[in-house]
Amino acid sequence: MPDNAIELHGLKKVYRGQGGEPDKVALHGLDLGIPAGSIFGLLGPNGAGKSTTINIMAGLVNKTEGKVRIWGFDQDENPRMSRASIGVVPQELNIDPFFTPRAALEVQAGLYGVPAARRRTDAILEKVGLADKAEAYARTLSGGMRRRLLVAKALVHAPQVLVLDEPTAGVDIELRQMLWDYVRELNAAGTTIILTTHYLEEAEEMCDRIGIISQGNLVACDETSALLARLDAKALVVTPEGDADLPGLPDGVRGETREDGALVLHYRKSQHSAMDLLDHLRGQGITIRDMATEEPHLEDVFRELTRAA
């Protein structure tokens, strides 16, 4: 097993302008290493370059410059093994409506050269909850079942790296939970997972490590806990006895009153402490019934980094 499942060095992609339009640079010399065995979140706003990066890794888009290694295989020197090491679950529900799930998996396995004796079609269908729909035409499947079928197709050649591109977009809570349970099971068995999602709470819960792309540049890449610790912000939530108006606050502290009457004080940990703020409130005549602190979420970090970029 290599140290990094994915290695990108100086990855650049330029889409040439048509009809006199200027060229568009989608990736500006991206350097990125994704540790083997991790669940890695690749995040960024729309148009940041995430899909371009994924499509280059999967061999679906030609890079302009740079080096790509998938599971230790150089994409230029050994494209066959590089492509065989990665499976991609696309965001679009692109399936053949006249194939059954079993037939779709068999065809996909054949395209990857998986011998009939080594195919795991029924086992994969069972894992994604499609065993009872194995002989149903894909056009009769619900949106959630089609999403499961895409996951199954990406697994037929047992790739070491699995890319999930917005896998839970538009799916119900039950399917989302089933998918995450299966992803954790695959990861525990050694599969490296790369996840793109706009549901940042999912990335915060699932991912060991997160990279954030903005305007074709990697603006952050670190362990999830380290990214969250980057923000100096914190919030003190105070529930007063009875009704209480928000008093004057120290410099650098922003306050708000929630609908339930709680007073929320937003402050920087490097400038203030929760105990000092509690003493300040008591000094303003506020009797405190309860209090709690809130740490920043990944969404706060995401906004801060992409805004700066």
UniProtKB/TrEMBL annotation:
- What protein name applies here? ABC transporter ATP-binding protein
InterPro entries linked to this entry: AAA+_ATPase, ABC_transporter-like_ATP-bd, ABC_transporter-like_CS, ABC_transporter_ATP-binding, DrrA1/2-like_C, P-loop_NTPase
Recorded superkingdom? Bacteria
Cited Gene3D superfamilies: P-loop containing nucleotide triphosphate hydrolases
> SMART domains recorded for this chain?
AAA
- Which UniProt keywords are given for this protein, alphabetically ordered? ATP-binding, Nucleotide-binding, Transport
GO-annotated molecular function: ATP binding; ATP hydrolysis activity
Cite the ABC transporter domain residue spans from the record. 6-240
Q: Name one Pfam family in it.
A: ABC_tran
Upper classification of the organism? Bacteria, Pseudomonadati, Pseudomonadota, Alphaproteobacteria, Rhodobacterales
